[in-house]
Amino acid sequence: MFTVLLDTTDLGEAEEVVSASFGRIRMAAGEHGVPTRSRLERSMVGSTSVDVADFDYAFSYAMVPPERILLVRVRSGSIDARVERGAFERFGAGRVGAFGAIAGESLIGMCRHASADIYSVDRALLSHVAADSPDPRDQVRLTGSVPTSAAAGTQLVAALDHVRETVAADPEACQNPLVVGTAQRYIAASMLATFPNNAVMEPIALDRRDSTPVLLRRAIAFIEDNADTDISLADIAGAVYVTPRALQYMFRKHRDCTPMEYVRRVRLHQAHLDLVTGDQATATVGGVARRWGFGHLGRFAVYYRQHYGQSPHVTLRG
């Protein structure tokens, strides 16, 4: 659910609210005497803010290094930003950039009559989905602000739009820890698939050694015992004392799926049991789906039908 944070023609007020929302910024209108209407709406998906920003004018900006990575998905107009090695990149409609991808770098550029969605992402989320070391000094991080390819950027845009439409805009989904946790990790994983980064995804010799059936059984037991909580790849790996990369290799080797895909299957099974035993007078498919972390009812129905051969509504009706 979105809340209006800013709706003004006062450039000073806009600068103040944008600074409070993302990091201290200076904004200078490109033309004097023209209207400077700014609007900002926000929804919170866990620790990730999702903002819909509209600036009906052109302005230059200079911003201190943001604490978080600002994923900027441009819908109309354009935003120029200084990226790696001092070069400038123009992000037009349909493009996405990781502003502040490299910690400690300030942002400067130009915004031209832009409408954009801005996702403020905690840098630590990247390590939650791809860390290869328990040492907090070995954090996964982005090394570039521009997608590695146009296709990768398009896929990230689709992922961000999905989160905005099915989670950020839904008050019930925003209050569900499983839905929120899944959405945040979905964004983080999509970022790593889109931007240059330092994550080592392929298993090394030590990872292969840490993929025994005994460890797999422990991981599965942890998942089944905690499927109703917001568990991450790092949580599961920590429970069995292996790296997340080793855990990924373990599940691919023995179960032909990722650990988080296995979590999804376990939650689907629990949702199925709730539908089988649910009271038709009070239970709903949507409520059961959200309880087990499925924020999009249509996708849940398709996934359910693939595994159980019928609609979840049919199961609930008995």
From TrEMBL:
Query: What is an example of a GO molecular function annotated in this UniProt entry?
Result: sequence-specific DNA binding
Q: Does the keyword section mention ATP-binding?
A: no
Organism for this UniProt entry = Mycobacterium paragordonae
| Name the UniProt record assigns to this protein | Helix-turn-helix transcriptional regulator
Is Transcription regulation tagged as a keyword? Answer: yes
Keywords tagged on the record = DNA-binding, Transcription, Transcription regulation
Task: Spell out the SUPFAM superfamilies in the cross-references.
Answer: Homeodomain-like
Q: What Gene3D superfamilies does the record tag this protein with?
A: Homeodomain-like
Lineage, broadest ranks: Bacteria, Bacillati, Actinomycetota, Actinomycetes, Mycobacteriales
Pfam families reported for this sequence: HTH_18
Identify the PROSITE patterns for this entry.
HTH_ARAC_FAMILY_1, HTH_ARAC_FAMILY_2
Q: Where is the HTH araC/xylS-type domain?
A: 217-318
Specify the superkingdom: Bacteria
Entries under InterPro entries matching the protein? AraC_XylS_family_regulators, Homeodomain-like_sf, HTH_AraC, HTH_AraC-typ_CS
